[in-house]
Batch of 4 targets.
Target 1
Amino acid sequence: MTDLQVRRAKPDDAAALVRLRSLMLAAMGLEVGGEDAPWREVSLRYFADQLAAPETFAAFVVDDPTAGVVAGAAGHCHPHPPGPKDLTLSRGSLYNVSTEPAFRRRGLARLCVIALLDWFRDETDVGQVELHATQDGEPLYRSLGFVDSSYPTQRLRIRR
């Protein structure tokens, strides 16, 4: 394995973030469709817009000299009201953690998540970082200090 380095994603990495998202969603059992699936264009615009807002969004990726971007993690900050145990006014969301199958089990996702957590700590004012973990990802997040929330996530879809 070459000496792969983590770097902050740039605007021209939006397509790679969509590709990694597709891998993650497929691994979660979702039907992602082909390259022309409508969600991909919406996702490309989303990541392009987010990458243009470096104060509230960051993604960290790992490049392979031959394969290009092979792993990544993304996150953003959003306003959140304070409470008795957290006086901060912002929360972080961590998502889109994915690695190309041929590059898995090398710690690349861990490197990307750690870089993102460092960004949250050092460059934002978030008080907490939240995520939705898959069963495969749960050990990674627990090893980094994430704990189960007291309140389960519930969801109501009002638009497609």
Target 2
Amino acid sequence: MAEKPHDAFDRVYRRHHDAVRRFLGRRLAAAEVDDATAEVFVVAWRRFAELPADDRVLPWLYGVARLVLANEFRRARRADRLVSRVGGLAGEPLVDGSSAVVDRLVLAAAFDALSERDQEVLRLVAWEQLTSAEIAVVLGCGRTTAAMRVSRAGRRLFRALADLAESEKEKEVAR
């Protein structure tokens, strides 16, 4: 009797999970390894019919892992560009590493203070680098509406940044 696909996948998973995890662990921060490993095996599950013979499965999985890594590195670069773009718009150039960390934490706190709707609009602009017309398609609204949402979300982000800066000044005065 032929092996069922889910049994065959389970065998591949059990046999190669640790090797793929180690491969990714040498290239990513510890907090990201489990998610990246899971993503590799999601791809393997979706493309199970394309998996090569047993002796070539692990190299194939490493190839998928490289693509997952490339996606993760692109995501990190987009996040860094967002920090630079917003920092540049605020008129505060990044001077040294410590101020970049502080700026990034402040930006993250301001971003987290926004509604999920505003966060998603800003992600579409900064991470996906979509135009207003493309954002309109994603959101299922008109181009003008999308442009207004981007503009309003940006203003709310700058307001949140200003509020955080003001609270930091108040803390400094209180010390």
Target 3
Amino acid sequence: MSQPEPRIAPLTPPYPPRIQAQFDRIMRGAPPLVLFRVMAGHSRAWDKFRAGGLLDPGPLSLRQREIVIDRTCALTGCEYEWGVHVAIFAGPAKLTAEEIRATVEGDAASPCWSLAEQALIAAVDALHHLATLSDAEFAALANHYDEAQILEIMLLCGFYRTVSYLANGLRLPLEQIAARFPA
């Protein structure tokens, strides 16, 4: 089954030198993702998008960051971004097949998660469904994460909800390298 064309056409090679240099920096030699190619065709949107990126080393571990991103993308039904992150980061983040599946089909009570990760999943779920955290959810997070980490969790949820809006709303075709949601 062929995939739909994106609603906004992505750039095609050869890319302008400035854009090629940015792709090289982001992708480290791999071909640029369709999402990046679409965004880079619109300089204001591309500059704002790149400025909001949260993939640099931050206060969360790679594993924590990826749990937040994967769960956020799963909740928004964004197989495109979920699949890219699972394909690229699940191994380095040491996420097991059971944990990857739980980001889509599980919840905070899934037995594969540690207590700290259960608090993380519960926070992502609350932010997704209610756009806030209850006092109990915030306290559970604070038992395991410091203020900088809690802010990063909220920022990741918001940024990857935006990424999900873009990927879903533009109907981006799934990347060939990307994982697929569990059947």
Target 4
Amino acid sequence: MWFHRSVPPASFPARVRRLVQRVVLGGLLIGFLVVGGTAFRVWQVAREDDRTHADMAVVLGAAQYNGVPSRALEARLEHARRLYDQGVVSYIATTGGRQPGDEYTEGEAGRIWLVEHGVPEDRVVEVGFGTDTLGSIRALADAARARDLKTAVIVSDPWHSLRARTMAEDQGLEAWTSPTRSGPNVQTRETQLYYIRRETFGLLYYHLMKAPVDVFDGITQG
């Protein structure tokens, strides 16, 4: 006599383990795609140099020393000055507040440098507020609305461009980017990879929380 022996169904704990494994693997894959896609966009936008005419060039703040711009800030100011001289923008906005103990704001140091280098004072919009990118962009947006300035070309380091542009657009400005190609933050491949990584997670955090993270803004502001 032949007996048919049925195969017992998989136990409940085994099915749960497989389900958990699939969920974890799926989450890791999605996370990898999100992070990788964001990093690619940071790199891609860093390579853009849009010279479409805008109402203003927005110089994102960086460290200054008693009114003298740091190398990073000076590189941004020089780039914005060239955009003004070439007729790409009608105004230059300098942004950034003061750190504890500072006599000058980053915006003020930027204005002084631009005027000393030939930009008419009435063509410089000083916005000396904000200790991070988002704070500076919000203050800028208020100043721009007061002057009916609606379009902006963002001037910062290449890897900072996407996050700054995203914040500007969220504040109601029509914005594109023309990053500086000089300065200490764009010198070596190791430096570039470091900033791409940091800006990738900074942008992801901003999308999630709509807030800045000091550890990320510290690489570009102050």
